[in-house]
Write a structure and sequence with these properties.
By secondary structure, the protein is mainly alpha-helical. It contains six helices and no strands. The radius of gyration is 17 Å and the shape is globular.
Length: 167
Amino acid sequence: GAAILAGILGLATSLVLIRLIGRLVSMPHEQVGDVTAIPTITLLATAVMGAVVAGVAEEVSFRGYMQRPIEQRHGPVAAILVVGLVFGFAHGTHVAWSLILMPYYLAVAATYGALAWLTDSVLPSLVLHAAGNVLGAFQLLAAHRSVLGPARVTPPGVNARFFVNLG
């Protein structure tokens, strides 16, 4: 329970980070094509299954098979950083990916990696990753665009609100 709570706080911080970056640069975003011909139950089942499978596969491979051996040889900081970089670049196949998103992917990977290291298990990060993917898929379907899209803040840029958010 404590690991899940810590992970949620870490991921919330990652979302704040991406919003701060979105105040400074134009963010890429995913869009959903026309899904009106797909039955709702099929669409939801596909979204949930795809999100869960991706979360499980990524956590087992990145934090389980990749991070653990690097940790044992070079320590947790190096392992989390290396795996975070690979994690970020592995998401380069996404339509909305760009180098602008690397700080976000590194922050998310650091949260998942720290959880795996501190709990000696991939289960907390696996649950959070899969749940986050499901929420992201639902948000994408509901809004027809990703939450990582262009910032809707007024006024954008570095100003008093930026520093309040940064704090």
